[in-house]
Design brief:
Elements (H helix, E strand, L loop, with lengths): L2 H4 L14 H13 L3 H21 L2 E2 L9 E2 L3 H8 L1 H32 L6 H13 L2 H12 L6 H12 L10 H4 L1 H25 L4 H9 L4 H28 L4 H7 L8 H11 L3 H34 L1
Helix pairs in contact: 3-15, 4-15, 5-10, 5-12, 6-10, 7-10, 7-13, 10-12, 10-13, 12-15, 14-15
Protein backbone atom coordinates (compact mmCIF):
# COMPACT_ATOMS: atom_id res chain seq x y z
CA UNK A 1 0.00 0.00 0.00
CA UNK A 2 1.36 3.31 -0.94
CA UNK A 3 1.73 6.16 1.42
CA UNK A 4 -0.85 8.13 -0.50
CA UNK A 5 -3.46 5.48 0.17
CA UNK A 6 -2.74 5.35 3.89
CA UNK A 7 -2.78 9.04 4.41
CA UNK A 8 -6.15 10.51 5.19
CA UNK A 9 -7.10 13.69 3.55
CA UNK A 10 -7.69 16.20 6.26
CA UNK A 11 -10.33 18.75 5.48
CA UNK A 12 -10.91 21.87 7.52
CA UNK A 13 -13.92 21.47 9.80
CA UNK A 14 -16.15 24.54 10.20
CA UNK A 15 -16.40 25.48 13.85
CA UNK A 16 -19.59 26.89 15.28
CA UNK A 17 -19.01 30.22 16.90
CA UNK A 18 -20.97 30.54 20.13
CA UNK A 19 -22.89 33.80 20.34
CA UNK A 20 -21.57 36.30 22.79
CA UNK A 21 -23.54 36.24 26.04
CA UNK A 22 -23.70 40.02 25.99
CA UNK A 23 -25.21 40.02 22.49
CA UNK A 24 -27.78 37.37 23.44
CA UNK A 25 -28.81 39.30 26.54
CA UNK A 26 -29.24 42.45 24.48
CA UNK A 27 -31.31 40.58 21.90
CA UNK A 28 -33.56 39.14 24.61
CA UNK A 29 -33.93 42.56 26.24
CA UNK A 30 -34.83 44.26 22.97
CA UNK A 31 -37.19 41.39 22.16
CA UNK A 32 -39.04 42.15 25.36
CA UNK A 33 -39.06 45.89 24.79
CA UNK A 34 -40.06 45.84 21.12
CA UNK A 35 -43.81 45.30 21.72
CA UNK A 36 -43.80 48.28 24.08
CA UNK A 37 -42.12 50.68 21.65
CA UNK A 38 -45.34 51.74 19.82
CA UNK A 39 -47.01 52.56 23.14
CA UNK A 40 -43.89 54.43 24.29
CA UNK A 41 -43.76 56.47 21.08
CA UNK A 42 -47.46 57.23 21.38
CA UNK A 43 -47.06 58.38 25.00
CA UNK A 44 -44.11 60.61 24.08
CA UNK A 45 -46.06 62.23 21.24
CA UNK A 46 -49.24 62.69 23.28
CA UNK A 47 -47.76 63.80 26.62
CA UNK A 48 -44.12 64.85 26.41
CA UNK A 49 -44.15 66.91 23.23
CA UNK A 50 -47.11 69.07 24.40
CA UNK A 51 -45.36 69.57 27.75
CA UNK A 52 -42.16 70.69 25.99
CA UNK A 53 -44.24 73.12 23.90
CA UNK A 54 -45.92 74.41 27.08
CA UNK A 55 -42.53 74.86 28.71
CA UNK A 56 -41.27 76.90 25.75
CA UNK A 57 -44.42 79.07 25.67
CA UNK A 58 -44.10 79.72 29.43
CA UNK A 59 -40.93 81.73 28.74
CA UNK A 60 -42.66 83.93 26.14
CA UNK A 61 -44.82 87.03 26.35
CA UNK A 62 -47.61 85.65 24.17
CA UNK A 63 -51.13 87.05 24.22
CA UNK A 64 -53.47 86.06 21.41
CA UNK A 65 -55.14 89.49 21.55
CA UNK A 66 -51.81 91.13 20.62
CA UNK A 67 -50.18 88.73 18.14
CA UNK A 68 -47.62 91.30 16.96
CA UNK A 69 -46.15 91.80 20.43
CA UNK A 70 -44.90 88.27 20.93
CA UNK A 71 -41.45 88.23 22.57
CA UNK A 72 -39.18 86.35 24.92
CA UNK A 73 -40.13 87.08 28.55
CA UNK A 74 -37.67 84.94 30.48
CA UNK A 75 -38.94 84.25 33.99
CA UNK A 76 -41.46 87.10 33.81
CA UNK A 77 -44.47 84.81 33.56
CA UNK A 78 -43.36 82.81 36.59
CA UNK A 79 -42.85 86.05 38.51
CA UNK A 80 -46.41 87.06 37.65
CA UNK A 81 -47.73 83.71 38.85
CA UNK A 82 -46.25 84.23 42.31
CA UNK A 83 -46.87 87.99 42.50
CA UNK A 84 -50.41 88.23 41.09
CA UNK A 85 -52.92 88.39 44.01
CA UNK A 86 -55.51 86.35 42.12
CA UNK A 87 -53.01 83.62 41.34
CA UNK A 88 -51.74 83.58 44.93
CA UNK A 89 -55.34 83.30 46.10
CA UNK A 90 -55.93 80.39 43.70
CA UNK A 91 -52.82 78.64 45.04
CA UNK A 92 -54.09 79.01 48.62
CA UNK A 93 -57.55 77.79 47.56
CA UNK A 94 -55.96 74.78 45.87
CA UNK A 95 -54.04 73.94 49.05
CA UNK A 96 -57.16 74.38 51.19
CA UNK A 97 -59.30 72.20 48.93
CA UNK A 98 -56.65 69.49 48.77
CA UNK A 99 -55.93 69.37 52.51
CA UNK A 100 -59.58 69.46 53.64
CA UNK A 101 -60.83 66.96 51.06
CA UNK A 102 -57.98 64.48 51.60
CA UNK A 103 -58.08 64.58 55.41
CA UNK A 104 -61.87 64.25 55.73
CA UNK A 105 -61.97 61.59 53.00
CA UNK A 106 -59.27 59.64 54.85
CA UNK A 107 -61.18 59.81 58.12
CA UNK A 108 -64.51 58.78 56.57
CA UNK A 109 -62.79 56.12 54.46
CA UNK A 110 -61.19 54.67 57.59
CA UNK A 111 -64.55 54.51 59.38
CA UNK A 112 -66.26 52.88 56.41
CA UNK A 113 -63.40 50.41 55.95
CA UNK A 114 -63.65 49.39 59.61
CA UNK A 115 -67.38 48.85 59.06
CA UNK A 116 -66.91 46.73 55.94
CA UNK A 117 -64.14 44.70 57.55
CA UNK A 118 -66.78 43.11 59.78
CA UNK A 119 -68.94 40.25 58.60
CA UNK A 120 -72.66 41.06 58.36
CA UNK A 121 -75.58 40.25 56.10
CA UNK A 122 -75.63 42.29 52.90
CA UNK A 123 -71.98 43.38 53.14
CA UNK A 124 -71.46 42.91 49.40
CA UNK A 125 -74.42 45.16 48.56
CA UNK A 126 -73.28 47.82 51.03
CA UNK A 127 -69.76 47.74 49.60
CA UNK A 128 -71.10 48.19 46.07
CA UNK A 129 -73.26 51.15 47.12
CA UNK A 130 -70.35 52.79 48.92
CA UNK A 131 -68.04 52.41 45.92
CA UNK A 132 -70.63 53.85 43.49
CA UNK A 133 -69.78 57.59 44.03
CA UNK A 134 -66.21 57.00 42.88
CA UNK A 135 -67.44 55.40 39.63
CA UNK A 136 -69.56 58.39 38.61
CA UNK A 137 -68.13 60.79 36.03
CA UNK A 138 -66.79 63.88 37.90
CA UNK A 139 -68.90 66.33 35.89
CA UNK A 140 -72.04 64.27 36.49
CA UNK A 141 -71.22 64.10 40.20
CA UNK A 142 -70.84 67.89 40.38
CA UNK A 143 -74.12 68.37 38.50
CA UNK A 144 -75.92 66.08 40.95
CA UNK A 145 -74.67 68.14 43.88
CA UNK A 146 -75.42 71.47 42.21
CA UNK A 147 -78.97 70.74 41.08
CA UNK A 148 -80.29 67.73 42.99
CA UNK A 149 -78.88 68.67 46.40
CA UNK A 150 -77.91 72.35 46.60
CA UNK A 151 -80.71 73.96 44.57
CA UNK A 152 -82.66 76.29 46.90
CA UNK A 153 -86.01 75.61 45.19
CA UNK A 154 -86.12 71.86 44.58
CA UNK A 155 -82.91 70.56 46.12
CA UNK A 156 -82.86 67.63 48.53
CA UNK A 157 -81.27 69.58 51.40
CA UNK A 158 -83.94 72.27 51.45
CA UNK A 159 -86.59 69.61 51.01
CA UNK A 160 -85.35 67.86 54.15
CA UNK A 161 -85.31 71.18 56.02
CA UNK A 162 -88.90 71.87 54.97
CA UNK A 163 -90.00 68.41 56.11
CA UNK A 164 -88.26 68.79 59.48
CA UNK A 165 -89.70 72.27 60.09
CA UNK A 166 -93.22 71.08 59.25
CA UNK A 167 -92.70 68.04 61.47
CA UNK A 168 -92.05 70.34 64.43
CA UNK A 169 -94.98 72.63 63.57
CA UNK A 170 -93.17 75.56 61.94
CA UNK A 171 -94.72 77.22 58.90
CA UNK A 172 -91.66 79.18 57.73
CA UNK A 173 -88.87 76.72 57.00
CA UNK A 174 -85.49 78.17 55.96
CA UNK A 175 -84.50 77.90 52.32
CA UNK A 176 -80.77 78.73 52.25
CA UNK A 177 -78.79 79.03 49.06
CA UNK A 178 -76.04 76.56 49.90
CA UNK A 179 -73.65 77.52 47.12
CA UNK A 180 -73.84 81.23 47.87
CA UNK A 181 -73.62 80.89 51.65
CA UNK A 182 -70.79 78.32 51.72
CA UNK A 183 -69.17 78.15 48.25
CA UNK A 184 -65.88 76.53 49.25
CA UNK A 185 -67.67 74.09 51.55
CA UNK A 186 -70.07 73.18 48.74
CA UNK A 187 -67.17 72.23 46.45
CA UNK A 188 -65.40 70.38 49.25
CA UNK A 189 -68.50 68.36 50.14
CA UNK A 190 -68.93 67.11 46.58
CA UNK A 191 -65.25 66.15 46.35
CA UNK A 192 -65.34 64.39 49.73
CA UNK A 193 -68.38 62.39 48.62
CA UNK A 194 -66.53 61.39 45.45
CA UNK A 195 -63.13 60.51 46.94
CA UNK A 196 -64.13 58.80 50.20
CA UNK A 197 -64.74 55.44 48.41
CA UNK A 198 -61.22 55.62 46.94
CA UNK A 199 -59.70 56.02 50.41
CA UNK A 200 -61.99 53.31 51.74
CA UNK A 201 -60.80 50.75 49.18
CA UNK A 202 -57.11 51.30 49.94
CA UNK A 203 -57.62 51.19 53.72
CA UNK A 204 -59.87 48.13 53.42
CA UNK A 205 -57.09 46.34 51.54
CA UNK A 206 -54.76 47.19 54.41
CA UNK A 207 -57.23 45.91 57.00
CA UNK A 208 -57.65 42.60 55.20
CA UNK A 209 -53.86 42.09 55.12
CA UNK A 210 -53.50 42.16 58.91
CA UNK A 211 -52.04 39.05 60.61
CA UNK A 212 -55.17 37.67 62.25
CA UNK A 213 -53.29 35.17 64.42
CA UNK A 214 -51.47 37.99 66.21
CA UNK A 215 -54.75 39.84 66.77
CA UNK A 216 -56.37 36.71 68.20
CA UNK A 217 -53.38 36.21 70.47
CA UNK A 218 -53.77 39.79 71.69
CA UNK A 219 -57.46 39.18 72.45
CA UNK A 220 -56.57 36.05 74.40
CA UNK A 221 -54.07 38.09 76.41
CA UNK A 222 -56.85 40.47 77.38
CA UNK A 223 -56.41 43.35 74.90
CA UNK A 224 -59.58 45.34 74.21
CA UNK A 225 -60.94 46.55 70.89
CA UNK A 226 -59.56 50.07 71.29
CA UNK A 227 -56.14 48.78 72.35
CA UNK A 228 -55.96 46.45 69.34
CA UNK A 229 -56.93 49.30 67.02
CA UNK A 230 -54.50 51.80 68.55
CA UNK A 231 -51.42 49.62 69.02
CA UNK A 232 -51.82 47.05 66.21
CA UNK A 233 -54.28 48.07 63.51
CA UNK A 234 -53.34 51.73 63.20
CA UNK A 235 -49.55 51.15 62.94
CA UNK A 236 -50.24 48.47 60.33
CA UNK A 237 -52.42 50.91 58.34
CA UNK A 238 -49.85 53.74 58.42
CA UNK A 239 -48.41 52.91 55.01
CA UNK A 240 -51.86 52.51 53.49
CA UNK A 241 -53.05 55.80 54.96
CA UNK A 242 -49.98 57.58 53.57
CA UNK A 243 -50.50 55.97 50.16
CA UNK A 244 -54.18 56.93 50.06
CA UNK A 245 -53.38 60.49 51.13
CA UNK A 246 -50.65 60.96 48.54
CA UNK A 247 -52.64 59.48 45.66
CA UNK A 248 -55.70 61.48 46.66
CA UNK A 249 -53.62 64.66 46.79
CA UNK A 250 -52.33 64.05 43.26
CA UNK A 251 -55.86 63.86 41.89
CA UNK A 252 -57.56 66.51 44.02
CA UNK A 253 -54.90 69.16 43.37
CA UNK A 254 -55.75 68.90 39.65
CA UNK A 255 -59.51 69.06 40.14
CA UNK A 256 -61.32 71.29 37.69
CA UNK A 257 -64.74 69.73 37.17
CA UNK A 258 -66.30 70.50 40.56
CA UNK A 259 -65.11 74.13 40.64
CA UNK A 260 -66.20 74.78 37.06
CA UNK A 261 -69.59 73.06 37.39
CA UNK A 262 -70.72 74.15 40.85
CA UNK A 263 -69.42 77.73 41.23
CA UNK A 264 -67.76 78.58 37.88
CA UNK A 265 -64.75 79.73 39.87
CA UNK A 266 -66.66 82.49 41.66
CA UNK A 267 -67.05 83.35 45.33
CA UNK A 268 -63.42 82.58 46.11
CA UNK A 269 -63.44 78.99 44.86
CA UNK A 270 -61.12 79.41 41.87
CA UNK A 271 -58.23 76.97 42.28
CA UNK A 272 -55.08 76.90 40.19
CA UNK A 273 -56.41 74.64 37.38
CA UNK A 274 -59.45 76.92 36.98
CA UNK A 275 -57.22 80.02 36.98
CA UNK A 276 -55.14 78.44 34.23
CA UNK A 277 -58.33 77.86 32.27
CA UNK A 278 -59.34 81.52 32.68
CA UNK A 279 -55.90 82.80 31.67
CA UNK A 280 -55.77 80.61 28.59
CA UNK A 281 -59.33 80.61 27.24
CA UNK A 282 -60.67 83.94 28.48
CA UNK A 283 -57.69 86.28 28.86
CA UNK A 284 -55.82 84.49 26.02
CA UNK A 285 -52.54 84.97 27.91
CA UNK A 286 -50.81 81.84 26.72
CA UNK A 287 -47.48 82.60 28.38
CA UNK A 288 -48.85 83.14 31.89
CA UNK A 289 -51.25 80.20 31.62
CA UNK A 290 -48.40 77.94 30.47
CA UNK A 291 -46.22 79.08 33.39
CA UNK A 292 -48.98 78.29 35.87
CA UNK A 293 -49.51 74.92 34.19
CA UNK A 294 -45.81 74.08 34.47
CA UNK A 295 -45.91 74.91 38.19
CA UNK A 296 -48.90 72.57 38.65
CA UNK A 297 -47.09 69.79 36.76
CA UNK A 298 -43.92 70.23 38.85
CA UNK A 299 -45.91 70.12 42.07
CA UNK A 300 -47.76 67.02 40.90
CA UNK A 301 -44.48 65.34 39.91
CA UNK A 302 -43.06 65.98 43.38
CA UNK A 303 -46.09 64.45 45.05
CA UNK A 304 -46.14 61.55 42.55
CA UNK A 305 -42.46 60.81 43.18
CA UNK A 306 -43.11 60.54 46.91
CA UNK A 307 -46.12 58.32 46.22
CA UNK A 308 -44.14 56.00 43.92
CA UNK A 309 -41.36 55.64 46.48
CA UNK A 310 -43.95 54.86 49.12
CA UNK A 311 -45.59 52.26 46.87
CA UNK A 312 -42.26 50.58 46.17
CA UNK A 313 -41.44 50.49 49.89
CA UNK A 314 -44.88 49.04 50.65
CA UNK A 315 -44.46 46.35 47.99
CA UNK A 316 -41.01 45.41 49.29
CA UNK A 317 -42.39 45.08 52.81
CA UNK A 318 -45.29 42.91 51.60
CA UNK A 319 -42.89 40.70 49.61
CA UNK A 320 -40.54 40.24 52.55
Amino acid sequence: MTSTSTERIRRPVARKVAPSPRLSERAVAWGRRAPLLPALVFMVIVTQLPFVATLVISFMDWNALYPDQRAFAGLGNYTKVFSDPDLRSSVLTTIELTVVVVLISLLLGLLLALLLDRSFRGRGLVRTLLIAPFLIVPVASALVWKHALYNPEYGLFNGLLTWLWKLFGSNSPPQPDWITSMPVGAVEASLIWQWTPFMMLIILAGLQSRPLDIIEAARVDGAGTWQIFRFMTLPHLRRYLELAGLLGSIYVVQNFDAVFTITSGGLGTANLPYTIYESFYQAHDYGQASAAGVIVVIGTIVVATIALRLVSTLLREETS
